Structure formats: structure tokens, C-alpha cells
Fold each of these.
Amino acid sequence: MRVGELSRRSGVSVASIKYYLREGLLPPGERTSPNQAAYDEAHVHRLRMVRALIDVGGLSVAATRDVLAAVDDPDVPLYVALGRASSTTTAQDDPADDQDEARAAAERTLAAAVDERGWAVSDENPAWRTAVGVLATYARLGDDDLSAQLGLYMQVMEEVARREVAVVVDRGDRARTVEGVVVGTVLGDTLLAAVRRLAQQHCSLELLGETPIRPRG
Amino acid sequence: MRVGELSRRSGVSVASIKYYLREGLLPPGERTSPNQAAYDEAHVHRLRMVRALIDVGGLSVAATRDVLAAVDDPDVPLYVALGRASSTTTAQDDPADDQDEARAAAERTLAAAVDERGWAVSDENPAWRTAVGVLATYARLGDDDLSAQLGLYMQVMEEVARREVAVVVDRGDRARTVEGVVVGTVLGDTLLAAVRRLAQQHCSLELLGETPIRPRG
DNA sequence: CCACAATGGATAGTGTCGCTGTCCGATAGT
DNA sequence: ACTATCGGACAGCGACACTATCCATTGTGG
């Protein structure tokens, strides 16, 4: 198929498809003549992935490119790719003294929690820096309920991750597996956040009887 | 204090402070003369909140404004404010037929899962639409492992939410409580995602022995 | 076989976001 | 008195994610 049909099949405008091709999110079609190319089902699927990661997962075009590059390239470790997929900037502005101190304290907290659970994780993992940043920020904001919840978060996320990894192990080929991990991780973040909101509403109603909720439907 | 000191204390540039004032993220200082204002500790704290929500939570300026408005105004239901805080756009482009169908199926899946857990949640909750969107997207992408995990996600998030709500119940005044909920929810999303990545790394190592990890430190 | 739509490719333009820079006349502090 | 700072308004900027236009092919229905 050519670009027009690809556009119709995927619901993405021709202009955007051209843009994604330029940005390397979508591999070029197979050449049928010096300036003509043919696309196939793989391109339709890829476009759906792209839209899912961008619209639902909230990734930037650049992050989506990196993540998809890791899906294509068996040599890129997954956690590196998924680190890029963190919507959070993880950037620090001015490394003021108290900032550094807060970060150091947060890092000790995390390290202790990780050791206690017996997790084998590297501090190369971008998620490590992100977690430290959140903890440090929370501490600077005054209360530290979040740090108190850290143990629980780790416990439940280990449960979640174990199931996720288990499901993914017996897939088929490696490409589909990796793709499943990536999509599951990125979209899973969004789903988990939404489910957390629903759970919070339910629990606050349950514990406080705060808001009268009319049932669905 | 005046703007210069507020800037120094908070690490936010004067230009940005003026911008936040314009955008309503920061309440105006108390007037000491027709064109002079004084700021206090509350402004320093507020600025820290703003930076935390934007930098760590990944919220937009507009979302941050809405969330903080809810913190200030007791009449705005919390879940409405926190719905705005979802980084995900939750937008749909072309409601094609199969799109609608996928959404409807996803909505039935969610409703069934919610009923099974006995959750009292309203479909007014923005998180409901987000969750439906994620499920629908995942279904359209081919496999539906995510839907298979939905029950687990709900189970662990109920556990998490119960603890979070419990911690927040016995706070002191309502303002501090609400603030704690908001910050905990927004930063918690980021923390949970990061912890999930770490857990995934740990579990994939544990189950597959996939990557040799050198220990921290 | 030929007019005419569609294509690939390049480049420029658009709208939004989150600031940043500059200017102004009015204080504040010394 | 004088200079730094202030608040306030507004223009500008760079990044981002497209979108529009142009053009020289190419494909295709009549």
C-alpha cells in the first residue's frame, strides 16, 4: 500500500506519517521505484504503537523514537530504553547545598529499602535517579508520608512486576516479547495511575463516607 | 520579603515568579504601597509545591494551577482536581466505528472488574475515562495482557490507596490534609512508576538471569 | 497515450507552552 | 539625592509537534 491507504488504515494524517518517517519513528517503505515506496501491515501496526505511546503513554516523539529503537535493536538493554520513557524530566536545576543534602538522604533511604527487600538493581537504572528525586522533593516539601509508603510501594510493585515478567516470558519470538514489555510498561504506568485514582475514591468513600457517589450507569 | 528574596529562598527566577503570579499559580503578595508587595513563608512553600508538581510530577502549568486551586477551595472535589493532574491527554481524535467498539468493550471490562471488587466509583471520575482509554488502546494493539493484569492492578492499588487514605485521615487542619493528598498523589504516580521499573529489573534478573548487574556503590 | 490525481521529498510555517528580556515609572534604602 | 530594586506590562524566544506548500515524478482511468 502507499501512503494514502496507510493514512486511512491507521487514522494518522499523511503529513504526520511523513513527519514520523523523517523523525525515524516509522521505518521507510520498500522502494518500488526511485521515488515511490510501498508500506505493509507492519507499518500500520507500528503507527498504532506510535499513537499509543504518544497519546496514551504521554511520551514525546523523541522518547517514542528511542523506545521503539530499543524494540528493534536487541542490543539495547530494555531498562535503558524504558528509562527514556519516563515522562519525568529527572533534571535538576541548581545543585544548591541543601538540595544535594536532601538528595543524599533520599538516596540512603532508597538504598536501605532496596537492600531490605533484597532487590538487585543498579543505580545506572534511570528509575533509580527518578525515585531519589521524588523522595528528595517530598522531604523538602515538609512531611514525609511518601517515604513512609515506600516500603508498601516496593512490595506491591514487586508483586506486579513478577506477574508481568512471568506473563512475558513464554511469548514467542523475542521481538513480540520486547514489544509487549514496552507497551505494557508505558501504558501500564497510565493504567496504574488511573486505577490508583479510582481506588482512592473508593477508599476515601469507604473510610470517610465523604462523598455521596451515584452508581455508574 | 520582596520578590528578590523570594526568588533567592525558592531558587525560582524573578521572571518565573512573575509568570506564576500572572498565571495564578502563586497568590499575589500583600500590598504595602500602590506598587509594592510583600511575600511570606507561605509563598516560599507554594513555590516549592509548584516546582515539585511541574518538575517531578510532570504537570503542565495549567494543570498545576487547577490542582492548587482545588487545594485552596474546599468546594472542589478532590478527584476532579486530581483528574486534571493526569499527565495523559485522555483525548480521542476520530471516533471511528472500531474505536467506539473497542472503547465500549473496554468499558464493559472495567465495569465488570470494578463490580467484582465491589468498588464504589463514579464514571464521572476522569480516571475512569483514562482507564477505559488505556484498555481500549491496548486491545487495539493486539494482545491483551494488560487487561489480564487489571485485576491485580486493582487489588494492589486498593491496598495502596487504603494506606494512603488512612495516613491522611488523622492530619490536622483540612488545608494541610488536602495538600498532602495532592502532593502524595501526583508525586506518588512518579514514584510508583520508578519503583515499578526497579521491580521489573529485579524480577527479570531473578526469573531470567538476563542481565548481569553490578551492585550499587 | 495522456490528463490528472497521488506520491515522495524538502522546506517553511503554525500554534502552544514555558519561560525570559526589556522597558517603564514608582519606591526603598543609604 | 541617588541608585538598586520593585511591580507590571508586553514582546520575544526556543522547543515541540505537527501542518501546509511546493515540486518533480509516478500511477492510472478513460
Amino acid sequence: MAVTLKEVAIRAGVSRSAVSRTFTDGASVSDKMRRKVERAARDLGYSPNALASSLTTGRTKLIGLVSNNFHNPIFLQVFDLFTRGLQDRGLRPLLVNLSDETDPQTSVRMLRQYSVDGAVVASSTLPPGFAKAFRDEGVPVVHSFGRSSGAPEVHVVSIDNVECGRMAARTLVARGYRNVAFLGGPESATSTQDRYAGFFSELAAHRDIKASYSFADAYSFDAGRREMLRLMRANPAEAYFCGDDVLSIGVLSAIRESGLRVPDDIGVIGLNDMEMSRWESINLTTIHQPIRQIVTSSIELMVAMLDEPDRYPEARVFPSSIVERGTLRPLPPQN
Amino acid sequence: MAVTLKEVAIRAGVSRSAVSRTFTDGASVSDKMRRKVERAARDLGYSPNALASSLTTGRTKLIGLVSNNFHNPIFLQVFDLFTRGLQDRGLRPLLVNLSDETDPQTSVRMLRQYSVDGAVVASSTLPPGFAKAFRDEGVPVVHSFGRSSGAPEVHVVSIDNVECGRMAARTLVARGYRNVAFLGGPESATSTQDRYAGFFSELAAHRDIKASYSFADAYSFDAGRREMLRLMRANPAEAYFCGDDVLSIGVLSAIRESGLRVPDDIGVIGLNDMEMSRWESINLTTIHQPIRQIVTSSIELMVAMLDEPDRYPEARVFPSSIVERGTLRPLPPQN
DNA sequence: AGATTTTTTGCAACCGGTTGCAAAATATCA
DNA sequence: TGATATTTTGCAACCGGTTGCAAAAAATCT
């Protein structure tokens, strides 16, 4: 079907090597030769077979993009940024949807079979060991949105989720809330665990504050809404730190559906600062996560690793910051 | 780096063909041989190089997944369904993000270089000619969510957008609205054009009804909200047919931010029936688009084409239906 | 112009597999 | 048990490219 290098060589009346060289930059070809070959290639509609060449060069320019976050709209942006960023560098994303799979073995094998040059694990829920499995099998890997650690075993680009939890707690305390709650994503998600840990570690210093917690079964609008509707049936806390903006928006919806008002009756603080959070009708107080920077940095790291596969693992942590909007009661008067 | 078939052959003391055969199903290998080879393979941690084998078999099991809809959350679900569906059939999605590119040539070339077995164009905005370019270059293609036609040039799996437009118009008319408007997605999107066409063709029979239109610059929450805020500054229509639920939700937000109520002051009908539309706080009347069926059918078609690349192009159209909720005024009393 | 250096080109082996064909090994039958 | 049919195995060529090496061609120098 497709035109091969050999056919071009015959048409141009030159050797196969000559054709190969005109399509490899940095190879030695005279102008005359190049023109002859390009002519023939154009006539025949030839374009080199990337896979065949990868056989000898050992590079496929394929990057596995592995994720299990297919419900949080923020990840559409993440995929957008990753695919564009990779493409801009001549790399091709091979997408792996883990669904609920948490064992890395099958995806590692699969990506190895396709000889990917590297893999990006884009997930805020998978443990560090997941990405580690790629490295162990010789696949350069960076874990984006993963748990950052002082002793990273693989490259991690992320925010400090523990600190985010603390930040949320500090904010609620400062606003004078005395009965607060954490509404996390799936309990097994590392980001949930870390945000939880930070939240409660900060509250430990405030024994007078009542604190509770529960978990939504996914990072999604619906899961947040369902969980909050459930909580509303008992007696809800004064303020909720939600593990993600999508949860928060579901939560806001549940609160309003129940006839209560935000922030008068219940306060909410989210995490991510997604676009919708800025809407006046939502106006969510949240913690900003610098997604674009995380993705860009992940790609840079990936690219660096292509040249230096055994690069010493590093954790890149980006700062988060509170974005004050309207879902928490105002600061009590300072006097 | 990776273990090759040759090394396994040596280790097992057999020919390379023997090893190859044990890893190809349907090949003739004795049990004894198979055990010997599998043993050696396991010891060495061998797994076959999919790309190398594709060279001779002519099949890569790679499917290009081409899209430019990276802002509409519904597409996260689309990607989820596609990636899972393809994976379940042993196919691998190679993702291509078109961004704003509308010329198929670069993506076609790229996918040909990677010898994909086929391509799925998942886009409600690209014209049929886009997918056609893949076919012309010998890449089996199905266009999902594309414009359906009575004389399809490529496989299309979709809904009838023109009919959706008509359906929306009929519904608004039946509710007694006399001043209606179409708020579409990008004007260049085929889905926008078709919904527009259907909407106004139906209204042509009702000369007494005032109708206007405008376009948001993307299928996204924000774009819908921005456009509606703009419209609210002049004097808005009584009811809006929005080209998509994400637009509708943005529109609802804009209306409420402006202090008006839905459906008392302004009616809204959307298209897609995304999860959020069901929320009580949104409760959007909309037209249901059977996304799951479209994706499943697209994959089936793709799989069928792998065996029969020159399959005669077909258009598969799935029915849409109105989902009545609370963003249109009730039906006027029948007497 | 002839000798020498530099650049360009083709040969042939290789990347990691698959496969048609014929020989070798087993199985089946009388 | 020997003859015949069937299955299993290895050889060698091939898939579509790349690349080290040496020969050929072109450029530079005296």
C-alpha cells in the first residue's frame, strides 16, 4: 500500500541509503542528490515509516500518557495541555485509560511492547509505587499531580497537598468556624489522603474545633453532590473543605437544593480554581493549583529524560494559594 | 536494553521461529516446545516488540484518535469511552489534538508515518472533508459526532443535528414562546450550522414568531456565559435554544447573575443531556444525545473496517429526544 | 596537472520480528 | 514393524528502514 524507501530509491536511481539520508537530518547528502530524491519522493507521495526507523534508532517518539482521571473536567484541560505540549516537541501521546485498574503491570507491559520513549502518569490518586513500576521496567517516567515526597523514587511534578490541607484548615479557623469538615475524593487517592492529613494536622492545634470528614467516591460533580445530599440529611458542619472544585460545585448545588444558603448557612472551600469557580453564580473560594505550570514542567522533565534516562529523580513542587471569593463567611472584624 | 526474541531462542536452545510462533496465536507449536520457550521468556522477562512485528504483519493496532473538542466536558466522557472501548479490543489510541488546526494534512501524514490501522475523528465541528482526507490517503476512518449525510463519503456515526434544531423549535413554539433565539457554538462548526438550519427551517412555518441568533466562540461553559451576558445587555429573547448543554449552563448562570429567573423570565433548552443537566439546581430541559451508543457504534465500525478496509461508507444516525425538565415554561393549558 | 584532503555515495549488515517452504520428527495405519 | 500421513521445526528471505565502512567523486592544494 504505502510507498517505501526502496521504491523511491529506484525511481530516483540512487541507493536506498541515499534516500534514507535525505530524510535524516544531519546526514551527509549533496544538494544535487537531495533534490533528486525529494523529487522522486514527492512524485510517489512517500513519507518515511516512523516505526521501521524506530527499530534501528531505538526511538519511537511515543510517550505513554497514563491516567485514571476521566471524570474530573479539569483533566480535559490537563489532556489538552499534555497533548499539545508533547506534539509541539514532536512527541506522540499514546493514551492509556486505567479505569479502575491500580496494578501498573499491564500498562507497563503494553507500553514496553510499543517501545514508548517514556511515560507520563497523570493522576492525583495513584501511589508513587505505580510510577515506580515504570522506572523499574526501564521506562522513563514522570508522575504529574502525584504525591510529592522528600525522597522521590521517580520524578514527580505536583503541588504540596498536605500544605493545601493545612492552608484550608487555617483559613476556616481564621474565619471563625468552630465545626468544620473535610469532604474528600476517593479515600484511596493519595491526594485525598494528603489533603486530609494536612487538614487535620493543622486542626490538631485547635482542640476546641469540632472536625469531621467523609469521602465522595470520585472526583466528580455528581459524587460531590451525592455525598453532600447525604450529609445534609444528618446535621451538617458549618464549613466544608472539599478535595476538589468539582466536588465543591456539586456540594454547592446540594446545599442550595436543600434550601440552605452559602455562605450564610454553610461555608465551602475548594481546591483547583477551575474556570467555573470564577463565575458569579458559583464564586467559589478555593485553592489555586497551577495546572499549566505542572504540565509544562512535566513535559520539560520528560524531554530531558529522553537524553538522560537515568537522571536522578527529582520532585518539583509548585506553590498553591488561596483564592478568596464568596463561599466562606467574611473575616471576623479585627480589633 | 530490552530482551529480544533471539536471546530467548538461544536461552531455550531453539530457533527464532519457534519463539515467534509461541507468541503468535494460531501458530503450530508442540506443547513441549511451548513450555520450553515460555520458561526461557519468563526467565529473561521477554515481551515481544509490537512495532517490529507490525513491520511484517502490516498491523499496528494503533488507532488515531483525532479531536479538537478539548473544552467541552462531555468530551472527557467521549475520550473515556473511546479509550476504554479501544483498549478492550486490544487497540491503542494515539491521540491527536488539533487545537485550532482545520487542515487534515499534517495529522494524516503523522498518523500514516505511525502506520495506524485506522483513525477516529471525534469532532462535532469539523466538516466531512476533514475525515475524507484520511480515507483518501488510505487510512480507514470513522467520523464520530460529525455531520451525517444522505450520501456519506466516509463512515459517520452521529445524531441528526438538523432534526435536533427542528425539535427545539417545535418545542419552543408549542410552549407559546413568540420571541425565540438560537445561541450556537462556533459558527464554523458543522453541528452549529445544522442545528441552526433545522431551527430556522422549522420556524419558517411560523411567520409570527420573532427569531434571532448569535454564536458563542466555543462549546464551553465560559463561552456560553460570556455570550449570554452580552445578549442580556440589549433586550434578550423569551427563550433560547443553546447549541449544547455546556453553553446552556453558562447561559443559565448569566441569566441568574443578571437577576432574572428561569423559566419565568427567560426559557432555555439545551442539547446533550450531560450529567449536570439533571441536577435540581440546574434542571435543564434539553435534547438527549446518545453518546455512549455513538462511541460504541463507532468502535464497532472501526473494528469492522480493519478486516474490510474498503467497506462501503455508511452513515449511522442515532435518534435524539427531548428531555423535559424545568427551564422552559409549562405547556399552555389545552382546551 | 597531479597529489592530497574532504565530501558523497553505495554496499552490506543489522534492528526485532514473521512466514513460506522443505526437512525432521511424530503419529497413524495396515 | 514398516509405510504413509500429519505435525513440528528450522532455514532463509523479508518487512522498511539505518549506519559503519570503504570506494568513488569532488574539492583543495602545490
